[in-house]
Specification:
The structure is a single chain. The protein is of the alpha/beta class. It folds into two domains: about 5-130 and about 325-340, 2-Layer Sandwich (Nucleotidyltransferase, domain 5), CATH 3.30.420; about 150-320, 2-Layer Sandwich (Nucleotidyltransferase, domain 5). It has a five-stranded mixed beta sheet with strand order 3-2-1-4-5, sandwiched between helices. It has a five-stranded mixed beta sheet with strand order 8-7-6-9-10, sandwiched between helices. The chain has twelve helices and ten strands. Residues about 130-135 have low confidence and may be disordered. The protein starts with a strand and ends in an 18-residue tail after the last helix. It has helices at about 35-40, 45-70, 85-105, 115-120, 180-190, 200-205, 225-230, 235-250, 260-285, 300-310, 320-325, 330-340, and strands at about 5-10, 15-20, 25-35, 75-85, 110, 150-155, 160-165, 170-175, 290, 315. The protein binds 5'-O-[(R)-(carboxyoxy)(hydroxy)phosphoryl]adenosine and zinc ion. Zinc ion (ZN) binds near residues 154 and 157.
């Protein structure tokens, strides 16, 4: 059978993503972001994100269709993120997907956002291999081998998955019990007077700091915590610890060594993220680790992942950054897998589920 032509719609957070794939081939990946609109609030405002999706969906679909050089009538299926994410934002995408599928008479597939991040790794296309991006190539060459551990880290989620089968056997090993790692980056950046989103700014400033000058706490890594939360994360204590450290200096009228604070904070986050992911690989006897989500842009996270993966004989995969941040192509990719496997479509009765399990 011919490879299915699938359009994917992603609206779980602040990116309106429309992707078009033919099987594993990426044809278009159009993304509109409402990030700038959230900047003055220091974080994503759900209501603002939902409205922005409503406005961006049509032009973004048109752009993707033009980029792919297809007609909507040719689509074999539509896929959409039904969760997890912001309820209102998800609803806009789900409603749009239903309308599109209904008007075209094509099957509709509901897809899990987190599993979508893993599906991004399947995609091939011009300029995608080897992995491009600011920090050079970390290979995502060749087939994705399963099972794999997947660490997904963004402003909205921090999850560790065990993926045995992309479309049917994905297990949540752990997740953040409070803030997402990207959220922690954004909050600490704000504290240090850096712009939103803070991740890239902390990363830049930290490059001039000493990561060992200040040791900030690693959440949920004490033996007592590991028993219950071996693969879970916590970043709110770290954020508070950074805030206290900075306030103490400010109150004393001392200058805050911003670069050292940023470096120490970044080190603490990277250490826990990669430490727990590598521990999962070791514990489960799965020598494969896939990274996804916007925080994967972080230079220290990438560096530590490379080092520890090499030390432990773990094959590391990092898709290009354009496929790590939220996008519609990863949703289309999973949709294409579902079509190719002959899975029945989801119908038109499903809703958005902000806490959808994997
Ligand atoms: O995947 P993404 O674009 O989606 C959302 O969560 O919306 O991730 C954005 C998050 C933000 O919190 C941002 O601060 C963080 O990823 N981020 C970074 C870096 N680049 C983006 N965090 C740390 N270091 C970076 N270089
Ligand atoms: Zn995401």
């Amino acid at each position: 059978a011919a490879e299915p032509l699938v359009l994917g719609i992603e609206t779980s957070c602040d990116e309106t993503g429309i992707g078009i794939v033919r099987g594993r081939t990426l044809l278009a990946n159009a993304v509109a972001s409402s990030m700038d609109e959230h900047a003055r609030f220091g974080g994503v405002v759900p209501e603002v994100a939902a409205r922005a999706h409503l406005e961006a969906l049509r032009p973004t679909i048109e752009r993707a269709v033009a980029d792919a050089g297809i007609r909507l009538e040719e689509l074999d299926a539509v896929a959409v993120t039904s969760g997890p994410g912001l309820a209102g934002a998800l609803m806009v995408g789900v409603a749009a997907a239903k309308a599109l599928a209904l008007s075209l008479g094509t099957p509709l597939y509901a897809v899990n956002h987190l599993v979508g991040h893993v599906g991004a790794d399947l995609l091939q296309g011009e300029g995608l291999r080897p992995a491009s991006g600011r920090h050079g190539a970390i290979s995502t060459v060749g087939e994705l081998e399963l099972p794999t551990v997947a660490l997904l880290v963004s402003g909205g989620h921090t999850s560790l998955l065990l993926v045995r089968d992309l479309i049917g056997d994905v297990e949540l090993l752990g997740e953040t019990i409070d803030d997402a790692a990207g959220e922690a980056f954004d909050k600490v950046a704000r504290l240090l007077g850096l712009p939103y989103p803070g991740g890239p700014h902390i990363d830049r400033v930290a490059a001039d700091g000493d990561p060992d000058a200040i040791r900030f706490p690693r959440g949920l890594t004490r033996p007592a915590d590991l028993e219950r939360h071996r693969y879970d994360f916590s970043f709110s204590g770290l954020k508070t610890s950074v805030a206290r450290w900075v306030e103490k200096r400010r109150d004393a009228g001392e200058e805050v060594p911003v670069a050292d604070v940023a470096a120490g904070f970044r080190e603490a986050v990277a250490d826990v993220l990669i430490g727990k992911a590598v521990a999962a690989c070791r514990d489960l006897g799965v020598p494969r680790l896939l990274l996804g989500g916007g925080v994967v842009a972080n230079a220290r996270v990438r560096e530590l992942a490379e080092q520890r993966a090499a030390d432990e004989g773990i094959a590391l995969r990092i898709p290009p950054l354009s496929l790590c941040t939220d996008n519609g192509a990863m949703i289309a990719s999973l949709g294409a897998q579902l079509v190719a496997a002959g899975r029945p479509p989801s119908g038109l009765d499903f809703g958005a589920d902000s806490t959808l399990p994997v």
